[in-house]
Design a protein that fits this description.
The chain is of the alpha/beta class. The chain has 2 domains: about 70 residues, 434 Repressor (Amino-terminal Domain) (Orthogonal Bundle), CATH 1.10.260; about 180 residues, Endonuclease, Chain A (2-Layer Sandwich), CATH 3.30.870. Helix content is about 50%, strand content about 15%. Strands 3-2-1-4-5-6 form a 6-stranded mixed β-sheet, sandwiched between helices. A hairpin with a 2-residue loop joins β5 and β6.
Length: about 280
């Protein structure tokens, strides 16, 4: 389980009442315009099946839906659907136990992550996020998978919107060698890491599999610096998660993370390794 709902604490993410409400509003607006699903779907460039699933609250509405629907249903409908879609992304698809940390992420001025189980959620391309969700146990419904993947993609706007936030990610090489989702998905992951690592505010380091001196034996960790320069930590287990605020405990995590950064590959060596791994696929 990574720190954003890619694994298995609790049974989340359920189809929310707000998603069902959005679908009911879309249906009402469509019917008010005198259109059947068969008439409406091609005008907004989606399949009839997809529109039906959205109206039933079983699919997360795509970002382009309000604009396309506005052309067909009018400007008032566009405003209503835009506001409704925006409210959905705030919590739907995020596990309840993770939402507190997600709020901390939103305003952090520094955000560090060490992952030994999966690619951090903020760096997951859609195909990888979907592959993890499809392999969850107990299995998720299609609606739950859609919610989870969309929520994770929405969180990734932090990398582009918060240009003054320093993001640092340390990822175990074994995570890539596992090839979760298959070779094609792994290639997409590597290309995405290379692309995101080129951002000025993002640093990605790969931890070599063969590393005798390793400070990450206790498992994954996340650290965030708040706007008032307070550091907080976050950790997870199979059936537990914990936001860490006690200064003495956060200090321990910061010491460990600093050591991990010195043990992982440098930026240049990480890029070289990623390119070699991509070439081997």
């Amino acid at each position: 389980m990574t720190a954003d709902g890619s694994g298995g604490v609790s049974s989340e993410p359920e189809t929310s009442d707000s998603l069902k409400t959005f679908g009911a509003v879309l249906k009402a607006l469509r019917e008010e315009a005198g259109l059947t699903q068969e008439e409406f779907a091609p005008r907004v460039q989606y399949s009839v099946h997809y529109i039906a699933k959205i109206e039933q609250g079983k699919r997360f509405p795509p970002k382009t839906l309000p604009d396309r629907a506005g052309v067909v249903l009018g400007p008032v409908a566009k405003r209503v659907l835009t506001a409704g879609a925006r409210s959905l992304t705030k919590g739907a698809g995020l596990a309840s136990w993770f939402r507190k940390w997600a709020i901390i992420e939103e305003t952090a001025i520094s955000l560090y992550a060490y992952e030994c189980r999966a690619i951090p959620g903020l760096l997951q391309p859609e195909s990888y996020a979907r592959a993890l969700s499809e392999r969850r146990l107990p299995p998720l419904t299609e609606a739950q998978i859609e919610l989870q993947v969309t929520a994770r993609m929405e969180r990734q706007r932090l990398l582009s919107e918060r240009e003054n936030t320093a993001f640092c990610f340390i990822i175990e090489e074994s995570v890539l060698e596992r090839r979760a989702g298959g070779a094609a998905v792994t290639r997409t992951v590597i290309e995405h890491l290379l692309e995101q690592g080129a951002r000025r505010n993002v640093e990605i380091q790969i931890m070599p599999t063969l590393q005798e001196d390793h400070a990450g034996a206790e498992g994954l960790m996340y650290l965030a610096e708040t706007p008032d320069n307070q550091w907080l930590g976050y950790s997870e287990g199979q059936l537990s998660s914990n936001v860490i605020a006690a200064p003495n405990n956060v200090s321990i995590l910061l010491q460990r993370y600093g050591k991990l950064r010195s043990q992982a590959h440098s930026h240049e060596a990480t890029v070289s390794l990623l390119e070699r791994l991509r070439g081997a696929l």
